[in-house]
From TrEMBL:
Pathway: Amino-acid biosynthesis; L-leucine biosynthesis; L-leucine from 3-methyl-2-oxobutanoate: step 4/4; Amino-acid biosynthesis; L-valine biosynthesis; L-valine from pyruvate: step 4/4; Amino-acid biosynthesis; L-isoleucine biosynthesis; L-isoleucine from 2-oxobutanoate: step 4/4. It is an enzyme of class 2 (transferase). Transmembrane segments: none annotated. GO terms for biological process: amino acid biosynthetic process; branched-chain amino acid metabolic process; carboxylic acid biosynthetic process. Coiled coil: none annotated. The keyword Transferase applies. Its cofactor is pyridoxal 5'-phosphate. One of its GO terms (molecular function) is branched-chain-amino-acid transaminase activity. Its EC number is 2.6.1.42. It catalyses: L-leucine + 2-oxoglutarate = 4-methyl-2-oxopentanoate + L-glutamate; L-valine + 2-oxoglutarate = 3-methyl-2-oxobutanoate + L-glutamate; L-isoleucine + 2-oxoglutarate = (S)-3-methyl-2-oxopentanoate + L-glutamate. Belongs to the class-IV pyridoxal-phosphate-dependent aminotransferase family. This is branched-chain-amino-acid transaminase. Keywords: Aminotransferase, Pyridoxal phosphate, Transferase.
Length: 253
């Protein structure tokens, strides 16, 4: 049984509630053990998605939630294959903007934050694209509805900074580490939307999406409209890690 970066996911699970003063009344170890035991009892033998969530229990309609509010935890698992086509997807620059950190904490993985993502995804699907790309309130590239975004230019990986309203994604951080080990340069900086269409390669990253190549944005082909060499290199390295084929990263499992 291999669970990718369980400790990091559990830490983020707790910290997300802290933004809203919501207490998780279990230790990290208890949450981790519950997830592991659930997978074992369900005899998980193939790729699956694990979704833990917690919510305020009987508290009336008062919006003044405090750490004393009762909370409940639920964990679900379900079989999960590829979220997107690994041969590449199409994306569109969304008309919806990613919300600012002055509106709601962008680093919190909370259910309400996904309403923005739902709107962007619906719009992209209705217009015939596989996924959306959101800009931040200043018009710079932020992220996709459920994924971080990377572009490759001249063999350098570039991803937006957190002050572009991008989530500090666990897979995002993993890719930056992997890239360094592969001898690849990476930069975290602001990305203008025009840079995306001039990129040699573009890919998304996330727990569910893993590494997903983007081969077309709006009407513009990215590179030669095929999975790029850097994307292939990073994807292979990432896949080997999550399948425990690289002992250097066994502590991530």
């Amino acid at each position: 049984l291999f669970i990718f970066r369980l400790k990091e996911h559990t830490k983020r699970f707790r910290n997300s509630g802290n933004f809203y003063n919501i207490s998780l009344n279990f230790s990290d170890r208890q949450i981790e053990n519950a997830i592991i035991n659930l997978c074992r009892k369900n005899r998980i033998r193939k790729s699956c998605y694990i979704r833990p969530f917690y919510f305020v229990g009987q508290y009336g309609i008062n919006l003044h939630v405090t750490k004393k509010a009762p909370t409940h935890v639920a964990i679900i698992t379900f079989p999960f294959g590829d979220l997107f086509n690994k041969n590449g997807i199409s994306a569109t620059i969304s008309k919806w903007r990613k919300f600012s950190d002055t509106s709601t904490p962008t680093q919190a993985k909370m259910g309400g934050n996904y309403l923005n993502s739902i709107l962007a995804t619906q719009d992209a699907k209705q217009r015939g694209f596989n996924e959306a790309i959101l800009l931040d309130q200043s018009g710079d590239v932020s992220e996709a509805p459920g994924e971080n975004i990377f572009l490759v230019k001249n063999n350098v990986l570039i991803t937006p900074p957190l002050n572009s309203s991008a989530l500090d994604g666990i897979t995002r951080k993993s890719i930056i580490t992997i890239a360094k080990d592969l001898g690849l340069k990476s930069k975290i900086r602001k990305i203008r939307k025009t840079e995306l269409k001039l990129a040699d390669e573009v890919f998304l990253s996330g727990t569910a999406a893993e590494i997903t190549p983007v081969i077309k944005i709006d009407k513009k082909k990215i590179g030669d409209a095929k999975v790029g060499n850097i994307t292939k290199l990073v994807t292979t390295a990432y896949s080997n890690i999550v399948m425990n084929k690289n002992k250097k990263y066994s502590h991530w499992l």
